[in-house]
Amino acid sequence: MKSGCLGKVLFAILVFAVFGFSSYIWFTFFIRGQSVSTPNLVGKSVADARAICSDIGITLQIDSHKRNSETVPSGAVVWQNRTPGATNLIKRGTPIKVELSAGPLILRVPDFHGERPGTAVLRLGQQNLKIGGMSYIDSPQEGVLAADPPKDTVVPADTPVSLLVGVALPPPEYVMPDLIDQALDSVRPFLEQHGLIVSTVKFEAYPGIRDGIIIRQFPLRGAPVSAHDPITLVVSRQEESAIVEPPPPAH
User: Fold this and answer.
1) Are 96 and 59 in contact, with CB atoms under 8 Å apart?
2) What local confidence, expressed as pLDDT, does residue 18 receive?
3) Average confidence (pLDDT) over 212-241
4) What is the rounded distance in angstroms from the CA atom of residue 183 to the CA atom of residue 115?
5) CATH 3.30.10.20 describes domain 7-101
6) Which architecture characterizes domain 109-167 according to CATH?
7) How far is CA 38 from CA 92, 94, 98, in A?
8) 2-37: buried (b, 16+ CB within 10 Å) or exposed (e) per residue?
9) What is the 3-class SS of the chain, one letter each residue?
10) Cβ distance 224 to 190 under 8 Å?
């Protein structure tokens, strides 16, 4: 009884051993025999990569897309779609796809002259650069006046670029003169010569004063006034009228 059980166990062990050995032989000669270790093509020239692939019976495919690299020279293989190594097998006749290096990423500081600060900052981000600082000065020309480093300078990625921005000069400010009892026809040209515009003129009857004489004004005399401030005048007329003279057209 015991000898029968022992025989069955020995038979099972023998069958398992034969199956394992045959599987190993089948894998070695039929599967592994048709496969090779995936080569490492990174850093190789196209000619060398083709020669390596040809020697082991695989096909080299070069993708049209290129990648920038600080370490792999331009034109050499920089990436492959299969991991290299002795344990990573590739069947003969199978293609291996690679991409070539475009060399280091060359960045140049763009020309920002005359651009708005917000636009310049946006372009810096698009160029893999960043804003270093922004200074403002009064200038007849608005927008970016200069950059540091200057335009067309070759710089590495993430280089901070400082900008000098011109802002419009504030209009000159005056002390509002006393215009009461003066003629509108002589006052208006005087004000316009100094960049001041009479925005509103209203006519009112005022006994004892001839037509066209200023009887009220705003801003009042002595108040600060500039081109940004509207000037309103009330002018005498024989008959009171609600007619308001429109401001002169913009030049």
Assistant:
1) yes
2) 57
3) 88
4) 46
5) yes
6) 2-Layer Sandwich (3.30)
7) 10, 11, 13
8) eeeeeeeeeeeeeeeeeeeeeeeeeeeeeeeeebbe
9) CHHHHHHHHHHHHHHHHHHHHHHHHHHHHHHHHHEEEECCCCCCCHHHHHHHHHHHCCEEEEEEEEECCCCCCCCCEEEECCCCEEEEEEECCCEEEEEEECCCCCEECCCCCCCCHHHHHHHHHHCCCEEEEEEEEECCCCEEEEEECCCCCEECCCCEEEEEEEECCCCCCEECCCCCCCEHHHHHHHHHHCCCCEEEEEEEECCCCCCCEEEEEECCCCCEECCCCCEEEEEEECCCCCCEECCCCCC
10) no
Rounded CA-CA distance 163/117 in Å is 8
Give pLDDT tens digits for 70-128: 899 999 999 999 999 988 899 988 999 999 999 888 899 999 999 999 999 999 999 89
The ranges assigned to domains in the chain are 7-101, 109-167, 174-245
Q: How far is it, in rounded angstroms, from Cα 220 to Cα 232?
A: 10
pLDDT at 63: 95
Identify the architecture of domain 174-245 in CATH: 2-Layer Sandwich (3.30)
Has this prediction a pTM greater than 0.70? no
pLDDT band per the 50, 70, 90 thresholds, residue 12: low
Query: Do the domains 7-101 and 174-245 sit in the same CATH topology, yes or no?
Result: yes
8 A C-beta contact, residue 106 and residue 127: no
